[in-house]
Specification:
Heme iron utilization protein-like fold, 2 domains, 6-stranded mixed β-sheet, 11 helices, 24% strand, elongated, binds flavin mononucleotide
Length: 356
């Protein structure tokens, strides 16, 4: 996706909504060609409020208080709706397992795939509707929970009030630092998670595909992977959305982070941000393993030489514990409020030789 795509995406969503305001998100997704998790972040203000995936258990436990909800899951061949109260869940085998004979819903939620939770208040077929939507990291719909309706098809007022109260807890999240990462094979995500670990209770982590608007956040950390010498396209599009903000940058790449190649890439991102009045207050780069199945795409632009292959072997081990610690050191002052070398990019002990 290019930067201008990001703007045309928003225009496409707003145009489709203006023509058909009652369109469900699944239909809006087909109409615009955008994954639901991306288009929900482009809806008009007030329609959608994000919560980070780490909030899953707290959100689910709040939903247990709803006297009646409708659990909805859409598969390629069915729209499954289960009305009733929701069951409590327990963790096991990496899943959130639902089993309560007193409720109609049972099964297993693959929460490790969760990328974002959104509180959605968008009319459905001409009727007021409120729901909590759950998306994978790449923006695919997992399932949703709707405020229940009475026999007259109207929303149950107590349940609606609980929805509004729950959403309000996350509306104030706009005052929290935001961490957004783009990651194809997981390296940059690991760095993002290390940065989040500095203050997991007070900042939000999202993959770029499901990230909310950065507007109004006191600090935004954006992580990218280096693609042919530049920040990857998804993160560049996200960086374009920042204006007049305090920003931290982090990145992973196959080359060494103190190489000219790495510096040039980081400088590209920094200059684009500063041109829009942002202040880049901290930054960090480290090597990241190049997935062998993707390396051939890289060799198209930079054929393998013995030196490049050696650097790839070095990248195999990264990000390692040292990298994650150094990333935390670079961001600590911004996120944990303790003094650190926040303005100094972490330097690796390796010699400065680019991979490409
Ligand atoms: C198509 C492709 C292009 C890449 N281009 C570069 C590059 O120009 N310079 C570089 O140092 N690393 C390059 N890499 C390596 C990745 O930036 C590196 O493996 C990164 O850690 C991947 O991060 P991720 O796991 O978060 O997706 C490239 C990798 C791929 C697959």
């Amino acid at each position: 996706m290019t930067t201008s795509d990001a703007f045309s995406h928003r225009a496409r969503v707003l145009d489709a909504l203006a023509r058909k305001p009652g369109l469900p998100l699944s239909a809006l997704s087909s109409e615009t060609g955008l994954p639901e998790g991306e288009l929900v972040s482009l809806l008009p203000d007030g329609m959608a409020t994000p919560a980070p995936p780490e909030a899953f258990e707290a959100v689910w436990n709040s939903l247990l208080e709803w006297e009646k909800a409708t659990f909805l899951a859409i598969t390629p061949g069915a729209v499954l709706e289960v009305p009733g109260p929701l069951p409590a869940g327990t963790w096991g085998h990496g899943m959130f397992n639902l089993h309560d004979p007193a409720t109609p819903l049972g099964g297993h939620l693959l929460v490790e795939r969760l990328g974002a939770i959104w509180f959605l208040s968008k009319p459905h077929m001409g009727k007021e509707s409120h729901s909590v939507q759950f998306y994978t990291r790449d923006g695919q719909a997992m399932f949703a929970v709707y405020v229940g309706r009475g026999n007259d098809r109207e929303l149950l007022p107590e349940v609606k009030a609980r929805f509004i109260a729950l959403r309000a807890r996350y509306e104030s999240a706009s005052e929290r630092p935001l961490i957004v990462y783009s990651s194809r094979t997981g390296n940059t995500r690991r760095v993002a998670e290390a940065i989040l670990a500095l203050c997991p209770a007070a900042s939000d982590l999202f993959s770029v595909e499901t990230a909310p608007s950065p507007a109004g956040r006191p600090f935004v950390a954006v992580g990218f992977w280096v693609d042919r010498g530049l920040p990857d396209a998804l993160s560049q599009a996200y960086l374009e959305r920042l204006q007049g903000q305090r920003v931290g940058l982090f990145a992973t790449l196959g080359a060494q982070p103190n190489s000219d190649h790495a510096r040039h890439c980081m400088e590209h991102a920094r200059q684009a941000l500063e041109a829009k009045g942002n202040a880049v207050v901290c930054q960090f780069m480290c090597q990241g393993r190049v997935d062998p199945s993707l390396a051939s795409a890289m060799w198209k632009h930079h054929p393998p030489t013995p030196e490049r292959l050696a650097r790839l072997r070095e990248a195999e081990r990264h990000p390692d514990e040292w990298d994650l610690q150094a990333a935390q050191d670079a961001f600590r002052a911004q996120l944990a409020g303790t003094p650190a070398a926040a303005d100094v990019p972490a330097a690796m002990p390796a010699p400065a030789t680019p991979i490409v």
